[in-house]
Amino acid sequence: YHFARPDLSGGAAQADFFASNGGAWSRDNLTLPGVLDIEGSCYGKSAAAMQTWILDFYNTYKARTGRDVVIYTSPSWWNSCTGGWTGMSARSPLWVAHWTSAANPSIPNGFPFWTVWQYTSTGSVSGVSGNVDRDRFGGDRSRLLALANNTP
Length: 152
Fold this sequence. Notes:
Helix content: 25-40%
Strand content: 15-25%
Distance between the termini: 23 Å
CATH architecture: Alpha-Beta Barrel
CATH superfamily: Glycosidases
CATH topology: TIM Barrel
Largest sheet: 6 strands, mixed
Structural class: alpha/beta
Radius of gyration: 15 Å
């Protein structure tokens, strides 16, 4: 899981660091692909510059691991900071942050569906103090294993 900081260094440099420091992947039925958490501000970048940064991260991570990186973002951030870019929809699974009690989340422009949905950040879990994020996977066990093992 990598929290993007496009204001500190390029996408390729951050992907290299991530792949070398816990973001690697192996086909073991247990290890999901790495996640690029990109949210917050637009870091002073235009939509075109943000698209380039994300693509540089993606291409470097894919070259290092053989995997597509999962994109974690909110619809408002993606639509605002990338201009609703469609360039990642065929490449990366979407982990959408949309806190709602609705049956389905809103998704960013450019993505046809979500793979994981973070539906709240104020849930509770027995034995854990404080709030915890709660997520849903958008498929069954076979789809989760396919994601873990990089198979169709």
